[in-house]
Amino acid sequence: MRSGPKSLNHSSGNAAARTFDIQRLAHLFIQLDGDQATAKARKMVEEMRRKGDHDGADKWLRIIVAIGELGEPPTDTRH
């Protein structure tokens, strides 16, 4: 049984393609969750670990790194 986005679960393909998938998912998380992207990705790491899915947790950790590299959007402080 698969869990999470399809691109997180493929086991074949080259490293460049996997890196691209991680970057793409990080960008998507930033777009959808803004300044909460890292926090939500951390929750996914915890969920994967709780389920015993260490590979899934590792992939989410790579997404967290990619979010940091891409940079989360600034929090809008204007009212």
Describe the structure.
This protein is mainly α. The protein has a domain at about 30-70. It has three helices and no strands. It has helices spanning about 15-35, 35-50, 55-70. Helix 1 (about 15-35) crosses helix 3.
Summarize the structure in short:
This protein is mainly α and 79 residues long. Helix content is 63%, strand content 0%.
Keyword list:
79 residues, mainly alpha, 3 helices, single chain
* Radius of gyration using CA atoms only: 13 Å
- Strands, total number: 0
State the helix count: 3
Strand content: under 5%
**Major sheet, described briefly?**
none
* Rough outline: flat
Helix content: 55-70%
Q: What average pLDDT do the residues reach? A: 80
Q: List segments where confidence is low: pLDDT < 50 over at least 5 consecutive residues.
A: none
| Class by alpha and beta content | mainly alpha
Order of helices and strands: HHH
Secondary structure elements and pairings:
Elements: H1 15-33, H2 37-50, H3 54-70
